[in-house]
Amino acid sequence: MQLELAEFIDGQSDILLLCDHASDRVPPRIDLKVGLDVMRKHIAVDIGAGALTRCLAKRLGSPAVLATVSRLVIDLHREPDHAGLIPTISDGHAIPGNVRADRDDRIARFYAPYHDAIDSMIRSHRPRMIAAVHSFTPCLETGGADRPWQVGILYNRDDRAARPAIRALVEQGLTVGDNEPYSGRLLNATLNRHGEAKGIPCLSIEVRNDLISDAAGIARWCDILSDMLSNVRNSLAFEVPSAT
What is the pairing mode between strands 202-208 and 151-154? Predict the structure, then answer.
């Protein structure tokens, strides 16, 4: 069902799917003062991630929680005190409407209810594994090297799910980023809170967004990732976290 601040998908699988950046929605009475061209970019929404999450939920029979506000309104994949929680600039694009934003108000209206919804889903479904679905742009507009990976697996200290996931994807001949295009040691807010803090094996999946920008790409990566997630879930009883 569709709620104001989160989209819930019910399912019987013990793999819980999360998608923090599924939407480009800007709620009424918030004016970011940017054009539609900016709202179509990766800085506003993880292109393809929402559709991929829904496809995976259907394929796996998994419950899922998807955000329904743009990351430019508030970035739900940040700690509440993070400087980029309400961005005033993102990949070189100014977000003038956020300069005087009331941080506490946006946390109360959007951030806290979203994370409370995830907590509620965890209590009701008691997942054995959590997978967060994201996408990344092949190259940032503000410069930097091209990102050659087709998919990245991100994790912080608990690598029980990440290690077999990386192995499974490499064995398929894919170009896989190990804590790339950025490190889960530095940015892992949602899974730190809902996975590691609760002792639940977890991983974040980053798919390059040009590979999931249409229905054919979504279908292909749903095939790839549904098989991987099922295999990782089945292997978890035999995995031991590496010493870190």
Answer: antiparallel
- Domain membership of residue 244 (yes or no) is no
Q: Which two tokens stand for residue 94?
A: 């100014």
The radius of gyration of the chain from alpha carbons, rounded to an integer in Å, stands at 17
Which residue positions in the chain have pLDDT lower than 70?
A: 1-4, 237-244
- Does residue 69 lie within any of the structural domains? yes
Q: What is the Cα–Cα distance from 196 to 164, expressed in whole angstroms?
A: 17
34-63 residue pLDDT tens: 999 999 999 999 999 999 999 999 999 999
Domain count, the chain: 1
Is residue 89 within 8 Å of 51, Cβ to Cβ? no
For the record, the structure tokens of 197 come out as: 């803090």
CATH number for the domain harbouring residue 180: 3.40.630.40
Q: Is 197 part of a structural domain of the chain?
A: yes
Q: So what's the pLDDT on residue 142? A: 84
